[in-house]
Specification:
Shape of chain A: globular
Strand content of chain A: 25-35%
Strand order of the largest sheet of chain A: 3-7-8-14-11-10-9-22-25-21-20
Number of helices of chain A: 13
Largest interface: A-B, 51 and 50 residues
Oligomer: homodimer
CATH class of the largest domain in chain A: Alpha Beta
Distance between the termini of chain A: 19 Å
Structural class of chain A: alpha+beta
């Protein structure tokens, strides 16, 4: 299946062929993390941990099961989730007194405890995060990593003395995200959602949206400002310097295994995965090209090359299986290894190693003596160019329009006066969802696509994956 | 509360005071992992990953929810668990067609998929593991880390061509465990359980038992030989070299957050935790002892000391808070930091650093110039001595008896003919559980405590924590 012809089928096929997940588990939308897929997820998790640890967040792990009465405390929140939670009603042979639900997200698990942890201004800011499994009873068609019912999930939850400090946290989240997305070679837009599309209970929601090759948007995560919406029902209060009791302001940041789906979808090609070097389980695969009578000499040289790179902490694999090099290339291209090093007698005579990039297919000869540096430089270059290419693709797929007639299957930028009625009408006429307005603003001068009123902030629309 | 006076109360208090977990979550037996407790658990998890990765196991992550019909396939297994599983019966507003249970352990989640993964002898051995949350509806009194309802769990699952290869795996498990327990300074006995006490579905079960200071045994984990007990109902078959189809033999190895409980219980003292150096979040805390007029000079020297140790990859923390050294000592003793380094003007004049061991309280002066080496040596010595002391305590608390009258609250070794009737009678008369016989055997010559028949293999008994 070709990516350009049927993106959706191509995606399903590549996920299966590269053995990133096993979808044959006997519950729909609950997939098995295979060793290869799980290693990629864990690499991304370790980047997340680094980013949040470095900014003073502390990792915690809260229980999965939430009592119904705790869940119901914030009214908007429960309304937003009541059709999509799983309920535990029995334990052993008996019904439970209080029903328990599997967390779809952890606000209602954490906040009763935050109310105990936060006492005084000295306890603030409270910056926590966790990496856990969450559950949503998706009724739409499921898709590996992108729409599943058990979700590997990252969520940070913070408490602040006031709105301004919570706003600083939101800005810090943008910065952390910037660093992470660079490692993952994922372009995105930070789009402030409309009021009718924000997270249940949030004061405002910022979607982290990327664009897939078929022109559909994919939400990679979201950042929320809650203000006092949760701290009031959960009574998370602190005593300030003057002895006054105040409610904390809260923020959250959530991302999920969709990140793996986005990497597959955006970078993969007809040969298979193309993994960003920072994520790749093996950054380098060495394939010795054995000639008759020279087998041992080439094998030994390949082993040396492997050891040298390994010592330099490059994630390298030597493929010394007894099979044709071509078959090995096929395997590692499917698996998405960023850089292949070929070594044959000709290379050895010239004192070089043949580098083959997975992303471009480009072949170059590099000096064997400086191989560690050459490999490092090349991996950095691949990473940089993968991101730049993906960002370029995304921008190319954003079309600015004045009218909502005959829209292409792309991301659409158009004028909106900001009124709710016009907003709904935009969604109806375009048959797309409004993703929102850029949080950083942008230069724009146009008119609302519905009422024609002049506006300086355009809105972004797309069909969601 | 003193450990020697009321071990149980002391344990509960120390867990709370050291802030290892928060038990105030509104579901009984489901506790919150606080940052400090979670870091300790993660350190142990990382050791587990190292140990299992190094022996060719691959990490996977299977879904949490298991359909009732899959769970019921192995009859003994479901009988063993049916009074202690949590049931998901509804999703959104509707009842589910097939009820789902929260994994108490993952045999029945994994094995339908193993049946798809294993095709030929080339797929064997299949060696996998996962670190996940599991659930058991405990009806006994819960206790932090030791008896909880949501359990942080490690489980390895392997498939082998035959019984012999599965037995080799069991031996490998013993070796991995040996390395891990050394890092954790935990002594244990490998005790083969009686037939009436083995894991539901197992051919045999080996308990990993340690002994707590109050004389009760604590099972840290278990290793199981399943033979074909699961592969038959789940149809995990492979084609051997001759084209014949055979059932695989399987083993598992499970451990849980109880490991944290064991470290607390065995090593802690009246001042707080005593953490083995390999587990400790901070291996070293530096406390500058500031004298009037010399504050800056001492602070700078403490900072240098910190930087030098950090560069040498020691996990070190500089406590430069504005409070009395004594109050800092109190804090870090509670937190269990293995080694405290004090630095004052007197130390500086002598060119030394004062080392204070957490486990023994012993103070020594060490040459400032060789501080990295001294710290490394001291941490290694602490680790070695913590294990030796704990192992000595355990042996001291094992009492060999001929008669089952007036047994002390210890681990008891006594003769058993091996007959089931005598076994039950031993348990009734001793009011203890038979833990089993040492897997490695031992020199012994005695008589069955019930029937008086001569026997060469003694059995171990204890009351379980």
């Amino acid at each position: 299946m070709k990516k350009a012809e049927d993106f959706s089928e191509w995606y399903n096929e590549i996920v299966e062929r590269a053995n990133l997940t096993d979808k044959r588990y006997p519950v729909k939308g609950m997939n098995v993390w295979t060793p290869y897929g799980w290693k990629i997820m864990q690499a991304m998790d370790s980047h997340i941990r680094e980013g949040f640890d470095a900014t003073g967040h502390q990792e915690v792990c809260f229980p999965l099961l939430i009592p119904e009465d705790q869940f119901a405390k914030e009214k908007e929140h429960i309304k937003g989730f009541d059709t999509e939670v799983f309920w535990v009603t029995h334990a052993g042979l008996n019904p439970l007194d209080v029903k328990l639900l599997l967390r779809p997200t952890s606000e209602t698990a954490m906040y009763p405890i935050f109310a105990l942890w936060v006492r005084s201004h000295a306890d603030l800011p409270l910056k926590t995060y966790q990496l856990v499994n969450t559950f949503r009873y998706e009724t739409k068609q499921t898709r590996a990593f992108i729409r599943v019912r058990e979700i590997h999930f990252f969520e940070s939850h913070t408490c602040h003395a006031d709105f301004e400090d919570a706003e600083r946290q939101v800005k810090e989240d943008y910065e952390i995200l910037g660093l992470l997305a660079k490692k993952w070679c994922l372009p995105y837009k930070l789009l402030k959602r409309t009021d009718w599309d924000k997270f249940p209970g949030a004061s405002y929601t910022v979607g982290i949206d990327t664009l897939l090759p078929d022109g559909r948007s994919l939400q990679l995560g979201s950042i929320h400002q809650y203000m006092e919406n949760f701290s009031k029902p959960y009574e998370i209060k602190y005593e300030d310097e003057k002895g006054e009791h105040k409610y904390v302001h809260q923020t959250t940041f959530g991302m999920s295994e969709r990140l793996v789906g986005a990497v597959v979808a955006i970078h993969g090609d007809d040969k298979g995965l193309v993994l960003p070097p920072d994520i790749a389980t093996n950054q380098i695969v060495i394939v010795p090209v054995l000639a008759k009578g020279e087998t041992e000499r080439v094998s030994a040289a390949a082993r040396d090359l492997h050891d040298e790179l390994k010592k330099a902490r490059v994630r390298v694999h030597l493929d010394d299986r007894d099979m044709r090099p071509g078959a090995k290339y096929f395997d590692w291209e499917l698996k998405g290894v960023p850089l292949r090093l070929e070594l044959g007698t000709k290379d050895m005579e010239k004192g070089v190693v043949t580098f083959v990039r997975r992303d471009t297919g480009e072949k170059t000869l590099k000096d064997r003596k400086h191989v560690v540096k050459e490999v490092r430089d090349m991996l950095a270059l691949i990473s940089k160019e993968m991101l730049a290419r993906a960002a370029g693709e995304m921008e190319k797929n954003i079309v600015t329009v004045q009218s909502l007639e005959n829209l292409p299957e792309r991301m659409i930028r158009t004028g909106w006066c900001g009124g709710e009625e016009c907003g709904h009408e935009i969604e109806v006429r375009s048959d797309m969802n409004i993703l929102g307005t850029l949080v950083d603003g942008e230069k724009y001068s146009g008119a609302c696509a519905i009422c024609g009123k002049p506006t300086k902030t355009p809105v972004y629309l797309a069909r969601a994956m």
